Amino acid sequence: MSTTATEPSFRQSVDLMFNRAAALLDLPPGLEEKIRVCNATYTVRFGVRLRGEIRTFTGYRSVHSEHMEPVKGGIRYAPTVHQDEVEALAALMTYKCALVEAPFGGSKGGLCIDPRQYDRDEIEKITRRFAYELIKRDLINPAQNVPAPDMGTGENEMAVIADQYNRMNTTDINARACVTGKPIHAGGIQGRVEATGRGVQYALREFFRHPEDVKRANLAGSLDGKRVVVQGLGNVGYHAALFLSTEDGCKITHVIERDGAVENPDGLDIAALRDWIVRHGGVKDCPFGTFHADGRAVLEAECDILIPAALEGVINLGNAENIKAPLIVEAANGPITAGADEVLRHKGTVIIPDLYANAGGVTVSYFEWVKNLSHIRFGRMQRRQEEARHQLIVDELERISRDASINWTLSPGFKEKYLRGAGELELVRSGLDDTMRGAYQSMREIWWERDDVTDLRTAGFLVGIKRVARSYEEKGI
Ligand code: NAD
Asked: Is residue 457 part of a domain?
């Protein structure tokens, strides 16, 4: 979309990245092609009566790979949605799910619409109609195809999809598992809204646990004090920026939005800025820093970490050479084109790739799907039992110290923290953290061990493709 005219499309870009990795594997003849191609894309055009007229909308649902079912992938609402984009995003979902060991194939959906032009009731009507078209073709189904939020969609749309599926499948006991990212009251899970941003934070924390990896990016030390530029303060960008600034000591020095960028070298107050954007529709005139009308030029600002969290293709052959960040975390899908990727690799920029960096969303979606199928909230059975066992230990320690007249006391706050059993949110965070750590380690092993792999993206693709290939080989085609 924002790539230069001579660059390949988003889907071709993903395929080129796939090819780079697949060339390093010894796959059986024909399997590489089978994995790369998108299995099917369904295009739907439907009418909705709005504001006294019938408006026609175009939507897509692509299924990239069904080596595991259900297939999984978000639904995007944006005026720029088209088949090539949806197929690229579906392909990324295949490799992403494999990398983080979420047992799904890859899919993605999109509706060509500017959601800001419609009110909530209208969006509900349009979403219901779109969902109806997909459900009746099993393109939304708990066992076959499970969407989630993406750009321009959120909890509300997911609740409408779940409700529409339920109306059309009244005897399906697993109906709620037909879509993830739902509000809690509609079968959602704690921690899903912020999961992708939280995953970006966990990805960076894991990266900074390995000083030799940090050194490869010409950086040193911890996340504390690192200067960060974030593009897009939506669901993913906002949560990533909020957690990194309030929990890890990062300074978010620049935020780039649709209408420009805002800069504050001392670090922006992300919660206040987001509140401003929601109320005023952009960053212009906000009182928190200096405004720059040319937001895209701010991608080239001096910083330690650049987090593109809005759109694909924003770092392309037109600006790659000028990017100064030594470390880029792809919170968005496909923000760096294949051409720019090559330029950056040659410059020595370290890229934490999308298929890993934004996998927190699908990871927690996986937990939500499991919760819906098991019909019970995580932690409900064991929480109080865990607390009771911890209480036993604390009581016993206190008794021993009393009986032996030892003068020791537990640190302030220890008892409270230790005694509290894990609820759903704690378990979701623990599962997400474990997943992000494990997936990073599987990539870095290859990054360090193979001389022919010089970047984390190729390493991530290698892990993902190998797992998809194994799955095809095991099940037979
Ligand atoms: P969102 O709609 O919540 O937010 C997108 C943000 O980007 C908005 O604040 C918007 O104003 C801003 N934006 C749009 N155009 C811009 C431009 N030209 N310049 C600067 N900012 C611009 O979307 P999201 O859910 O946060 O998704 C963002 C990216 O993350 C997408 O690439 C999406 O595929 C990816 N992603 C999202 C999830 C998820 O769980 N939501 C999961 C994985 C990946």
From this structure: yes
What is the arithmetic mean of pLDDT over 112-117? 97
Are residue 214 and residue 310 in the same domain, yes or no? yes
At residue 123 the predicted structure's pLDDT band, cuts being 50, 70 and 90, is very high
Both 246 and 132 in one domain: the answer is no
Q: What percent of the chain has pLDDT over 70?
A: 99
Identify the domain containing residue 248 by its residue range. 191-379+422-477
> What would the mean pLDDT of 167-182 be, rounded to a whole number?
98
> Which of 99, 153, 196, 365 has the most ligand 1 atoms within 8 A of CB, as the residue to mutate?
196
353 three-class SS: coil
Question: Out of 34, 72, 96, 108, which one is annotated catalytic?
Answer: 108
Mutation probe of ligand 1 site: the residue of 75, 87, 157, 235 with most atoms within 8 A of C-beta = 235
Question: Torsion-angle region of residue 261: left (phi > 0), alpha (psi -120 to 50) or beta?
Answer: beta
Residues 332 and 257 in one domain: yes
Residue 20 lies in a domain: no
Q: 3-state SS of the chain: helix, strand, coil percent to 5?
A: 50, 15, 35
CA of 89 to the centre of ligand 1 (A): 13
Instruction: Select the more confidently predicted residue: 394 or 211.
Output: 211
pLDDT the model gives residue 1: 44
182 is catalytic: no
Report pTM.
0.96
374 in Cβ contact with 50 (< 8 Å): no
In order of 193, 356, 438, 468, the CA distances from 435 in angstroms are 17, 10, 5, 18
Pocket of ligand 1 (CB under 6 A): 149-152, 196, 231-237, 256-258, 295, 309-311, 331-333, 358, 361
Residues 98 and 237 placed together within one structural domain of the fold: no
Task: Identify whether residues 101 and 136 lie together within a single domain.
Answer: yes
Other C-beta atoms lying within 10 Å of the C-beta of residue 117: 9
**pLDDT (tens digit per residue) in 399-418:** 998 899 887 788 889 888 89
Question: In this structure, are 197 and 179 located in the same domain?
Answer: no
Confidence of residue 4 (pLDDT cuts 50, 70, 90): low
Compute, in angstroms, the gap from residue 150 CA to the centroid of ligand 1: 7
